[in-house]
Amino acid sequence: YIFPGGCLPSLARVTSAMASSSKLCIENVENIGIHYYQTLRLWRKTFLDRQKEIMDLGFDDKFIRTWEYYFDYCAAGFKTLTLG
Description:
It contains four helices and no strands. It has helices at 11-21, 33-49, 51-56, 61-79.
């Protein structure tokens, strides 16, 4: 619902594709997931702080809940290192 058709390949998938299809190589890998956790928490807060404005644009409670779930689900994934 959030990003229809979106693709978020794993690091293993990206490196495999690089090795089989290019001469690209990885010089450095850094896990910045905790920063994305913090970003998602701030996005959620801003989104909910502006909920009335969003609903005034014609969006409904389902839209609000969908995005709130997305922010929470992804933030939890990055905080627990399930994502990132």
